[in-house]
Amino acid sequence: MIELSNVKKSFGSAKALQGVNLKLETGKIIGIAGENGSGKSTLLKSLAGVSPIDRGSILVDGDPVSRKHAGRIAYLPDTDLFYPYFTVKQLLAYYNSQFADFNEAKAKEVLDFLEVPLASKMKNLSKGMRGRAKMAATLGRESRYYLMDEPFSGLDPMVRGDLVKGLIRFTDLERQTLILSTHEIREVEVLLDELVLLKNGQVLAHRQLDEIRSETGMDTVEWMTKETKAGA
Amino acid sequence: MGLDFEKDKPIYQQLIDLLSGDIIRGHRKPGDKLPSVREYAIEVGVNANTVQRVYKEMEAMELTETRRGQGSFITDNEDRLNMLRDSKKTDLVKSFIADVEAYGFSKDEIVELVRREIQ
Questions:
Q1: Is the sign of the CA dihedral B108, B110, B114, B116 positive or negative?
Q2: Does the domain spanning B11-76 belong to CATH 1.10.10.10?
Q3: Interface probe with B: pick from A159, A185, A210, most Cβ of B within 10 Å
Q4: A29: buried, middle or exposed (CB in 10 Å: 19+, 13-18, 0-12)?
Q5: Which has the higher per-residue pLDDT, B70 or A232?
Q6: pLDDT above 80 (res B4)
Q7: What ipTM goes with this model?
Q8: Most B CBs within 10 Å, among A168, A173, A177, A193, to test the B interface
Q9: What is the pLDDT, as a whole number, of residue B94?
C-alpha cells in the first residue's frame, strides 16, 4: 500500500501539491486524473521518489519513499529520457544493467506483442512506437508498483487501444499495482478499478469506477466534469 | 479483442449480462468451463479484478460453480438455468411493454400486432 499524508510541494511560489491525503491499495489499477496543472505529474514524481516533497509523508509498504525504492517502483516519466541513439535492443540492455528486477524475456514479449522493431534507433521511431518501446521497457521490470505518467498522451486512439491491451496482459494484479495519470479517461475506463481526481494540488475525489457508474448513473467523464466544476 | 461497453452501467454487470446471454443462447453449455480470470480479462479487454468480480457474483447467483484447482464451470442445475431463461424472457417482455405504453399504444392493438407479426 502507498499512503500519503498531508503531502505538500511548491515550485517557487507555485503550489503544486497542497496537502494531499491518499491511500492506494495494492493489486489495483488506479487512474490519476485532473486538469492541466492539477498536480498529476508532481504527485507521480513524488511517489516514484524522483522529486522530494516539502512537507508531509509518503509511505510505500510502510517505509518512507526515497530513491532506494527504485527497486520496488517502475516509473515511466512523461518525457523522453532515453538516449536517442540507442536502438530498442540497446535500451533493453541499458534497463537490464540499471534494474535488478528487469526481466529481459518479458520485455521482449511485450515488444513483440506491441510489434516494436528491436533494431530501430529510438530517434527514428514514430511517437507511437516510442511510446510502446518505453512502456515495454517499464513493464519488463518485475516491480511491485508501476507508475506511469501520461503513457497515452499524444498517441492516436489505435495505439492507445494497443497499450491498454498490453497493460491488461502484462500486469499481474495478484502481485502488482498500476498507477497511471491520464487525460484519456474514456479510453482507459475498462482498465481502471479506481479514479483519483485532482484539482489545484488537492484530492477532489477518490472513487471506484463501478460505484460512479451505479450510484451516480453518470459515465465517468460526466462525473469528472461535474465534480471538477463543483470543486471550484 | 476488446468490447464496447455502455457508459453508465458498471462493467462487471455488463459482463454478467453477456455471459448469461451466452448461456441462454446455448453458446456456453451446462458444465462448460469458463476461461481463467486472466484469459477472459485479456479476451474482453478489461481489468482482471473486474472479471474476478464477475465470476464471484455469478457463483453467488448459482450460475457457475468453482471446482477447486480447476476453475469455474457453468452449472448443470437445469432448474437454475430455466429460472435464468424465464427471468430473461420476462425482462424482455416487460421492457417491450414499457416502451409501447410510453408511446400510448393500447395493449389490445399491441397483442394483436405481435400475434400477426410472429406468424
A1: positive
A2: yes
A3: A210
A4: buried
A5: B70
A6: no
A7: 0.84
A8: A168
A9: 93
CB contact under 8 Å between A190 and B10, yes or no, is no
A195 contacts in chain B (CB < 8 Å):
none
Domain boundaries, given as residue ranges, for chain B: 11-76, 79-117
Instruction: Please tell me the predicted confidence (pLDDT) of residue A70.
Output: 67
Per-residue pLDDT at B61: 94
The CATH architecture that domain A2-81+144-230 belongs to is 3-Layer(aba) Sandwich (3.40)
**Which residue does chain B place closest to A189, by CA atoms?**
B46
Q: What is the pLDDT of residues B10-65, one digit of tens each?
A: 899 999 999 999 999 999 999 999 999 999 999 999 999 999 999 999 999 999 99
Cell numbers for A194? 479506481
A1 vs A61: CA distance, rounded Å: 5
Cell (9 digits) for A174: 495478484
DSSP tag of A67:
G
Instruction: Give dist(CA A156, CA A153) in Å, integer.
Output: 9
